[in-house]
Amino acid sequence: MNSQEILKILQAVEAGKVAAPEAVEQLKHLPFEDLGFAKVDHHRSLRQGFAEVVFAKGKTPQQVGEIVRAMLAKKVTQHNVLVTRADTKVFAAVKRAAGKAARAAKFHAQSGVIAIERNREIVGKGTILVVSAGTSDIPVAEEALLTARIMGNRAEHLYDVGVAGIHRLLENRGVLDEARVVICVAGMEGALPSVVGGLVAAPVIAVPTSVGYGASFGGVAALLGMLNSCASNVCVVNIDNGFGAARVASAINRL
Fold first, then answer.
1. Residue 26, exposed/middle/buried by CB under 10 A (0-12, 13-18, 19+)?
2. Which of 143, 189, 244, 254 has the fewest CB atoms lying closer than 10 Å?
3. 53-72: b or e for each residue (b if 16 or more CB lie within 10 Å)?
4. What range defines the domain where residue 102 resides?
């Protein structure tokens, strides 16, 4: 962000040459911060409602740490910081880079999520419910659950209620009915989202996981099953993409 550009906009507003709403539109498209190996988009929360999320896989721990440092350095908005697909080495680098905010940094090993929560405001209108078919699907479900919460939503979970024991799901009809958005995580043949979609009026975001035996093809079987769901309120994200499901659910929950 260039301070001179901001100053020009503010001076134009002060002089009455630019209306405040127009100034906001200009601020939405100000430059990013170039770290050489990454370009940190500091205005994403202004445009999209939540700050940029760091995907750690494929980055070095030092690179993730520097990105987090740059995000925390902006004092104008105390937004939450979210890092996905991290490990203990990445977490150590983030804590070193976070300074005073390191005390708020938490690593959730099961899902690989690092969260630095600085703002606990609830902006979602209802509850996002994360449902998993089996215990083996929980890591992806947890990524969705934590993402939904860090983005300002009330989020609850319902785990291990797959179609192999459908009575476990039906026992929780009340919980399903109260959800404004349902994220449904399943591997194997991926049947659970169709069942859930047939029970609720809310949108169901299906997440196929790579859990399953050989013919599941690393989640492709579940993905294709979900794409072919006959429940008309089901949409599908990519294999193991709990974050993407929660990001879409969060956008829906703000409408």
1. middle
2. 254
3. bbebeebebebbbbbbbbbb
4. 30-116
Identify whether 227 is part of a domain.
yes
Same domain, 213 and 94: no
Residues 58/106, Cβ–Cβ less than 8 Å: no
CATH classification of the domain holding 207: 3.40.50.1970
Instruction: Indicate the residue type of 232.
Output: S
Picking from 79, 76, 116, 77, the residue whose alpha carbon sits closest to that of residue 100 is 116
Segment 17-59, tens digit of pLDDT = 989 988 887 777 677 888 999 999 888 887 888 889 999 999 9
| Cα distance between residue 65 and residue 149, in whole Å | 22
Number of folded domains that form the chain: 2
Is the domain of 207 the same as that of 158?
Answer: yes
